[in-house]
Amino acid sequence: MLKPEEITALRTTISPMRFSTYLTAAGHDVNRAFELYLWNARLGEAFHTPIQAVEVGLRNCVNRALSGEFTPSWWECQGLDVLLDQERKADLSTVTRRIRNRDLELCTDQIVAGLSFGFWVGMLDGRYNPPIWSKQLRKAFSDLPAGRSRKSLAVAAGKVATLRNRISHHEPLIGRNISQDYSNVMSLLEWICPTTAAWIRPHSRVPLVQRQRP
């Protein structure tokens, strides 16, 4: 049980507005609200393992598609540059500048590692369907189930990206359908690589933490 002065200090640190979400969910039981806050943090931490696997797997699949359509140095190919939207161009410009500023080798491995999840999700957009995905989809995503398309991947990746960003910004998860969120993450990982999904699943703590909600 927290002391009154501890409650005051913690609410100040968290901020009254942010804490109000947990307080409402706890039926205005202050101590339970703090338990929900900690549970929310543990849940976000638990999601890190499967989301990390999705992020790494997705970027490698898209990298494989871009390498197949252009060259392994696709990021410097004029043929790709004319296709990219301004946001993707800005992403590439930012990562190349950061690599140069750190005096690292400007190569595909560094580019792939440095680009944000948003870049890879954005590359699944419909604008890239004919020039890239019409030929590269099944090569890059060889485990994508029959009946699933580039659009299926884009929608699934978008949902995972939204969840990832919410967790990264320490936003509440208490009002979300956690079972559905977890299913979305694991389904996308299975489309990327069923073996990886089977490997990650027993190590994921999301179902356990979900059941521990105060």
Task: Give a structural overview.
The chain has one domain. 71% of the residues lie in helices and 0% in strands. It has helices spanning 4-14, 16-25, 30-69, 78-81, 86-101, 108-114, 117-122, 129-140, 150-168, 178-192, 194-200, 206-211. α3 packs across α9 (150-168), α3 runs parallel beside α10 (178-192) and α10 crosses α11.
Order of helices and strands: HHHHHHHHHHHH
Strand residues, percent: under 5%
How far from one another are the termini?
14 Å
Rg to the nearest angstrom?
A: 21 Å
| Morphology call | elongated
Count the domains: 1
Helicity level, as a percent range? over 70%
Number of alpha- plus pi-helical segments? 12
**Main sheet specs:** none
Contiguous low-pLDDT stretches (5 residues minimum) are none
The average pLDDT value, as a whole number, equals: 97
Short description:
The protein has twelve helices and no strands.
Strand and helix map with partners:
Blueprint: H1 4-14, H2 16-25, H3 30-69, H4 78-81, H5 86-101, H6 108-114, H7 117-122, H8 129-140, H9 150-168, H10 178-192, H11 194-200, H12 206-211
Helix pairs in contact: 2-3, 3-8, 3-9, 3-10, 9-10, 10-11
Properties at a glance:
elongated, 71% helix, 214 residues, single chain
